[in-house]
Structures are given as C-alpha cells and as structure tokens.
Amino acid sequence: MPTEDSISQKLEESSKKVDPLINLVLKPRRPEQLYEAARHIIEAGGKRLRPYLVLKSCELLGGDQKAAIPYAAAMEILHNFTLVHDDVMDNDPLRRSVPTVHAKWNVPIAIASGDLLFAKVYEVIIREKTGQMPCDKVLACIERLTDASIAICEGQVMDISYPGTENVTESDYIAMVGRKTAALFKACAEVGAIVGGGTKNEVELLGDYAWNAGISFQIIDDYLGVTADEKTLGKPIGSDFREGKKTLIIIHALWNASPDDRQKVINVLGNAQANHKDVESVMKILEKTGSLIYAKGQAKTYAEKAKKRLAKFLESDSKRDLVELVDYFIARIR
Amino acid sequence: MPTEDSISQKLEESSKKVDPLINLVLKPRRPEQLYEAARHIIEAGGKRLRPYLVLKSCELLGGDQKAAIPYAAAMEILHNFTLVHDDVMDNDPLRRSVPTVHAKWNVPIAIASGDLLFAKVYEVIIREKTGQMPCDKVLACIERLTDASIAICEGQVMDISYPGTENVTESDYIAMVGRKTAALFKACAEVGAIVGGGTKNEVELLGDYAWNAGISFQIIDDYLGVTADEKTLGKPIGSDFREGKKTLIIIHALWNASPDDRQKVINVLGNAQANHKDVESVMKILEKTGSLIYAKGQAKTYAEKAKKRLAKFLESDSKRDLVELVDYFIARIR
To answer: pLDDT by residue (tens digit) across A117-154?
Structure first.
C-alpha cells in the first residue's frame, strides 16, 4: 500500500517542474481580471495528478521528461478549464476551499476565463515546441487531448441531462464518468507515451491503463463524497444526496433496495431540504444493500484492470510509480 | 459598389462547399441534446463571411480551395462558439431571429455546447488533414486560430469589464474590437494564406487586410445598430443605448458633446428603462456631434487601409472578390 506521504512528495516534485510553465502561460496581462480569474482555481491547489501521469508515462517509455512538460502543463490547464465551467453549470460555490470563479467574480468572467484556459491548452503546446519533437507527433498529441475535451463535454451533459437518477444504469454511469473523468486520464497517458516515443501498442496500453485508473479514481471520489467526514469533505455530509449526484453507490442501491427503501432514497435525492435524519436513513439503506462495499469493490476491479495493462512493460521506477498511483487512488482518504 | 445580390450569391456558393463538413462534424450523436444545441445557431443562418475569407485568401495565392475547406469550417465553428458563449454573457435572448442556446435550453447546455464547438474547431482540422498539407503548416494554422481565440476572450472581457462607457477612449475601443472581431477575420485570412502556400510576407499582408476589414465591419455593425429600423435590426430601436453598448459612435459623442449633452447621453446609456423620447434626444445629440458621420468615416478609412494591403497582389478574380467584400462591409444595410 502506498503511503499518502510518498505519493504526495512525488506529485509535488512533478508539479515543481510543470507549474512554472503554467504560471508563465497565464501571467498577468490585459485585461487583468481575465487572467486573474483564469489563474484562480489553479493557484488554489489541486493534486496535479494529470501532469504526473503525463510525465510518468513519458518516462516509462524512456522519454525525456523535459519534452513532456508542455503537455503536462496543457493537461492540467485543460482539467482546470473543465472545473471552472463545471462549477458554473453545477452552481457550486466552493472548490479547493476557495470561492469558485463565478462566485468570486461572476458567470460571464467564469465563462470567459474557462474559454481562455481552453485556448491556452493549445497555446502552451504550440509555443513550447522545441523543434525536437516531430510535428506529426505534436498533432497526434493535439488529437488525443481534443478527443478528450469532446468526451468531457459529452460526459458533463450526460450528467446534467440524464432524466432522473432513479433510471440510470451502471452502464450509463460508466459511459458518463468514462467521458467526464477517465477520458482525460487516458489522454494524459497517451500524450505522455507519444512524447516518450511509444509504439502504437504502447500508447494504447498506457491509455487503457489510465482510463481504468480514472474510473476507479471517480468511483472512490463518489465513495469519499458519502463516507468522509465534513471537515475532509469541505461540505455538509449528505451533500451528494441532496444534489442528486449520480454515483455508483446510489445507482447500485436503487437497483437493489426493497421498493419501500428505493422510494425513501428517491425522496432524498436532489432534495435540497433533506435533513440530517433523511440522510441517516439513506445511509442505513446503503448499508443494507451493500452499495458502499459494492462500489469500493468495483473501484478495486478497475484498479486491477489498470495495473494489468502495465504487465508488458519492463520493471522500472516509473512503472512502480504508475502502479503506486492506482493503489493510491483506492487507498486515499481525501 | 458591390451589389448585395452579387456578394450574397458568392457567400452562398462558398457556404455550399463548407457547410456539409460542418454538418458532418456536428452530426447527431450521444448525448443528442448537446449536439442539437451545438448546431442550433449555425443552422439558424449567418452570412458565412469567415469561411469565405479563408477560401478566397487561399485562392488568391493560387492554392486549391478544397484544401482550405476544413479550415473554413473550423473558423465558422469557432465564430459560432463565441456567439453561443457571448449570448450567455450578454444575456441576449435572440440571435439570427431564433432564441439563443441558453434561452432555448439553459445556461449549462449553452456553456457545454459552446465548449464542444470550440473542441470541434480542432477536431475538424486534425481529422480532415488529407496528408497533402505538411504538418508544420497544419500547426501554423492551429497557432493562428488559437491566438485569435485568446484575443476573443480578452476582447469580450474588455467589453464587459470596462469601468463605464463614459471613460472609454477610441483607442480602448480599437483594442477591444480588434480582439473581439478583427482578430478572427485576421486569422481567417492568415490560415487561408498559409493553406494557399503564401510566403511569410503574403500571410502578413492578408492578415493585415482582414484585420482592418474586421474593424470596419464592426464599426458598421455598431452604426447599423443605431440607424437601422426595427425590422432590419430585429430588436427595438435604441437597444444598443439601453444596453450601454460601447460603440465608436457613443464614444465619439461623449468626447465631443457639450457637458449638458454628455450628461444626457450618460443618463440613457445602460438604462433599460429609457423611453422613446430619451432615445430620440440621444439621436439628436449624435447628429450635433457628427458622431454618426465620424464613425462611418472611420469605417471607410479602415476599409481603405484594408484594400491597400492587397496592392502587392496581382489582379485576379479572388483579389476583386476580397476588395468587393470590404466594399460590401461598408455598403451593407444589415
């Protein structure tokens, strides 16, 4: 089992390589408000998992991490673009313990600064091309991250437009989080692998690794949203229920609860007025249906699938780091 | 003077070449609502000026229009992405005589479908690369359109965040519309020129042509917003005043009116309650200050600058088309 300290240190080392370029691309210029808003969520923190995945995938294939830095920066900027717009769409007031962009400024600034971040994804890649990387490979990377961006839009709209949580199946859930979360992890590994000089098969294997890792990451994210205490969570317990969030846990419970229990869960879902007692009763039903255990099990299954995709690569520090990353996804408590 | 019929026919011919590719890239797929929303404003019409500019710039340099079609499609998609998001930011209910995306669906769908369109800009270029165009040129085109996207975000935020119309100078105005409108025209001509095999100097000249043309286009847009009748305008007369829109006409009037008149104009600007009489009184002040005539004169000056940039190119049908385009910008009545 990875210790949170060990992985934290590695993530920090990687972000020390990538953050200066992010800061450079988003350095203050006219209109200052736009650039300040664009830097806001990035500066507020975040684990920098995606740049780490780019650098480690590149390294695994014997590539020079330096060549992957612009791509690592691009993927973190892309991730933050989606956060800024998602927060508007979901009307979330807080992110990384600071007010979201639309809450601190307003919706127009949040839309424009998200758009700016999206454009900066491409700028950082094109501006920083050292000339060492053949241009067909640059285009291949742009293709992967563009596909991921399209998938993210699709996943977000699936999330906000599924008719009602009670009809969502596990396969709908995977289709949704596969696009919303896992597609970007996949693109990070693919881009890192392309920069690292991977063969078509290696790029595909690493992409599959990261896609499966991404699914397990999201399931655990949902799990923590239900089980973590208020302080770790940064929002009241039961928020995910009140927001009607479509998590694997809830989907499993709805398909496996008794008709009475099912109705009780439905009554709480998306009900902003649900009180502590309502939330407690849902928690009890989740225990009865074994939905928490089921979700954790599914997260582990996807994590195992992810690790299996690494089997063909020779043992190395970077391979161990990629295995450790997935183990951390499962073991993490925040 | 170009007849509106002549240019309309040419724009239609050009859009017949480009629209099928736009439709292909945005064809219905899951989630259908997202793709329907993404097609909504594009299908509602529009002059397709930007694709025309791409194709004609390519043709001017002896390039094959066919090679420029993906780029022409990309630029029209990019333009429509900015319209969808701008409509949310400006809270506009109508565009091209149909409800805007956020009005027909909702703000989250408008944000997500705008984001999708932005990603599709890159997809259409990368997917449709025939292999005939060297990849360094593909990257050069991506660079130009990415720069334009960044400029558009900057221009939009300048527009919505300038402290108050009464302090905006003509040079602020040019900085703003240079980014919001002219940068995309410029990128269209540059991209067309790159695809057409233009030299660095030719790309620059055509970019300058289109930037100046874009400024003149925007000034006339503002002019028509004040002088056109309600039917042509599609919204009540005086709307631009009530919305506090920062047009060259208003900026000129504020700098040239008597203190009393200046105050009268300021009182109407951004005042949603301003009545017909208020609007009439502003119109009278604009006549006194000669601001309408001044703006039209400036539009003509930029149009002349644009045409001068074409001087070094040999006479050809496409050169005449590009000259005609700028003449049309000035002469148009809608």
So the answer is: 999 999 999 987 656 789 999 999 999 999 999 999 99
Question: A153, B123: Cβ pair inside 8 Å?
Answer: no
Integer Cα distance of B87 and A42 in angstroms:
27
* Per-residue pLDDT tens digits for A196-209: 999 999 999 999 99
β-partners of residue B99 are B94
> Amino acid letter at A40?
H
Judged against a pLDDT cut of 60, whether residue A2 lies above it is answered with no
Q: What is the pLDDT of residue A167?
A: 82
Neighbour-count burial for B68-92, b at 16+ CB within 10 Å, e otherwise: bbbbbbbbbbbbbbbbbbbbbbeeb
Task: Report pLDDT for A4.
Answer: 67
Local structure of residue B74 (DSSP, 8 states): H
Tokens 């995977």 correspond to A174
How many C-beta neighbours within 10 Å does residue A29 have? 9
CB < 8 Å from B in window 12-31 of A: 30-31
ipTM, 2 dp:
0.95
DSSP three-state, residue A128:
coil
Residue with tokens 């996804």: A329
Q: Which helix (H) or strand (E) holds B94?
A: strand B94-95
Using DSSP bridges, classify how beta strands B94-95 and B98-99 pair: parallel, antiparallel or unpaired. antiparallel
Token pair 């991404």 is found at A214
Whether B327 and chain A come into contact, CB under 8 Å, resolves to no
Asked if the bond preceding B31 is cis, omega within 30° of 0, the reply is yes
How far, in Å, CA of A186 to CA of B81, rounded? 26
Give the DSSP letter of residue B274.
-
**Nearest-angstrom CA–CA distance, B62 and B139:** 21
One DSSP character per residue, A145-185 reads HHHHHHHHHHHHHHHHHSS-GGG--HHHHHHHHIIIIIHHH
What are the average pLDDT values for consecutive 10-residue runs of chain B, which has 334 residues? 78 97 96 97 95 98 95 98 96 91 97 98 87 88 98 95 78 96 98 97 98 98 87 76 89 96 93 91 96 97 98 97 97 81
Measure A210 CA to nearest chain B CA, in Å.
22
Query: Which residues, other chains included, contact B79 with Cβ-Cβ below 8 Å and sequence gap of 6+?
Result: B46, B50, B184
> Is residue A131 exposed (0-12), middle (13-18) or buried (19+ Cβ within 10 Å)?
exposed
CB B116 to CB A153 under 8 A?
yes
CA distance B70 to B130: 10
List the structure tokens of B33.
């609502």
Identify the closest residue of chain B to A136 by CA–CA distance: B135
- Comparing CB atoms, the residue among A31, A88, A146 nearest residue B126 is A146
Q: Phi first, then psi: give them for residue A9, nearest 5 degrees.
A: -65, -40
Residues 6+ apart with CB under 8 A from A51: A14, A15, A18, A72, A73, A75, A76, A188
| pLDDT tens-digit series, residues A57-106 | 999 999 999 999 999 999 999 999 999 999 999 898 989 889 999 999 99
Q: Which residues of A touch B114 (CB under 8 A)?
A: 111, 115
DSSP label at residue B129: -
pLDDT of residue B129: 66
Give the DSSP letter of residue B165. G
b (16+ CB within 10 A) / e for B26-47:
beeeebebbbbbbbbbbbbebb
